[in-house]
Amino acid sequence: MKKLFTTMLLLSLxxxxxxxxxxxxxxxxxxxQADFNPKTAEYTYILSNVSHPVIEGVAVGYxxxxxxxxxxxxxxxxxxxxxxxxxxxKDVLAKLKLGAIQGMMISSVAAANVSDLLGIVNLPxxxxxxxxxxxxxxxxxxxxxxxxxxxxxxxxxxxxxxxxPYGWATTTPVKTIDDAQQTNFRIAQAPVNTDIYxxxxxxxxxxxxxxxxxxxxxxxxxGLDHTAIVCNITKKFxxxxxxxxxxxxxxxxxxxxxKRWLQRLPQDLQDILLGVIAEESKKSRAAxxxxxxxxxxxxxxxxxxxxxxxxxxxxxxxxxxxxxxQKWRAKIGPEYLETVxxxxxxxxxxx
Length: 351
Known about the structure:
The chain has 351 residues and is of the alpha/beta class.
């Protein structure tokens, strides 16, 4: 009994340490831990995102954290919370408006829920390539209205990062529009996407992201409207072995900041925060181009078949989607939408 008691005592002392070590080893964010003590900061900026920082457009949150800490001499700490630590996008947006948190990198598909004007980046075949995205961001006539597009909600658009061009991951190859009509696509809970799929006369299901994997496995859905980066990283290609490179929009994260909180910061910290966000977001957009090609290469090596629709089918989809642009023209503002389309149209001619 004495030996048994001794053994049990040793186990009770060792087990918590072993469990802690196992927990730390399994932490999905262990590689991004800060190498400084944030408790000494005078100000904290809580920044939320729903996705994993293995995606370049998400990892930018940690780059912003480290650079702001360095440039502010530790006065301002960016407390980045990816992987839905603060909740889903709708809940986090409510917290952001109230000032319970200070920043949010919201997905472009959900951005139209903040302001109709922000929906412009998710319209079909408008901001649909990496080059057009850069032109959109770097041209004042197209960027400034977007940056001010959520002011009525008390929010500032600080910048944008991405997760690649949208296409169709499917369990059966989609080579034509006729093939697409036989597919049930999962789309995001977003107003622009719903309008697009109705205009294309395609079958779709609005579904929360956590339910997608099981829905694909059981055949509830047979297609997924998303990007190659996300589909490969999140293992959706293990079920949906085909990807049609539709490239009708860029997947983006729109960096929103609570205006009231920002204006209460000392001016030098405001300048540092916004400056770093701009610098690191630009780097992230460049890194996303590279990651897009890398993930396609990895997916092909694992047996995923990549497909391109014919020019005539793309032309048909553009024509069918035109009523969507006209509907959102009134919501976004006719002059602004026209400016964006003309500006990016010139970019398309250059390409």
